[in-house]
Amino acid sequence: MSNDLHHTRNAPADPATTRPPQTPATPATSPTARVPRTRTGAAWFGICVAALLFVVLIVFMLQNTRSVEVSFLWMQGSLPLALALLIAGVGAAILTMVVGAARITQLRRLSRRQRH
Questions:
Q1: What is the DSSP string of 36-95?
Q2: Residue 67: which residues within 8 A CB-CB, separation 6 or more?
Q3: Mean per-residue pLDDT, 63-75
Q4: What span, in angstroms and rounded, lies between the C-alpha atoms of 90 and 84?
Q5: What pTM was estimated for this model as a whole?
Q6: CA-to-CA distance for 60 and 33, rounded, in angstroms?
């Protein structure tokens, strides 16, 4: 075996000639690629947020169990503070949804009139 062959075989690799094969970046392997948002992902996120809010609501209700006197129009009664606040919050949410639905209906009618 000649000395030249032995020297060539053990020589350090030239970085300019020995590069790994380049493959195009695919969305799955690219570090900057984003996964597209889907309805399922949005639903999962919404369920997680709702579950956390329910935990907060349960803790709130367990900590506010003392009874309070409530009067509304002709109705009077006593009920736990947390329940009274929950009823008030749900009532406000329903009122907000009614006003929002009326506004959406108004905008849709206006949009239909402008198209025809």
A1: PP-HHHHHHHHHHHHHHHHHHHHHHHHH--SEEEEEETTEEEEEEHHHHHHHHHHHHHHH
A2: 78, 79, 80, 81
A3: 90
A4: 10
A5: 0.53
A6: 41
